[in-house]
């Protein structure tokens, strides 16, 4: 979680610098590449635990930072657990 918060703070700093430079609101298009992800029972724990926590944290504290969150190369089984 600390690493993700650090990444978010770096993104926030970049967005704020861009907004100061342009005078316009800026946001992030967050892309997660799931290429190579294979089905494993541990995915349930990950999705319901760590990823859910990060997602909730981002939506509570960085709501205006993230414009869109896009999953690419998602295997078909991901819709059953996401």
From TrEMBL:
Residues 1-82 form the CRAL-TRIO domain. It holds the Pfam family CRAL_TRIO. SUPFAM superfamilies: CRAL/TRIO domain (SSF52087). Coiled coil: none annotated. InterPro entries: CRAL-TRIO_dom (IPR001251), CRAL-TRIO_dom_sf (IPR036865), CRAL-TRIO_domain (IPR053302). It comes from the Eukaryota. This is CRAL-TRIO domain-containing protein. It comes from Panagrolaimus davidi.
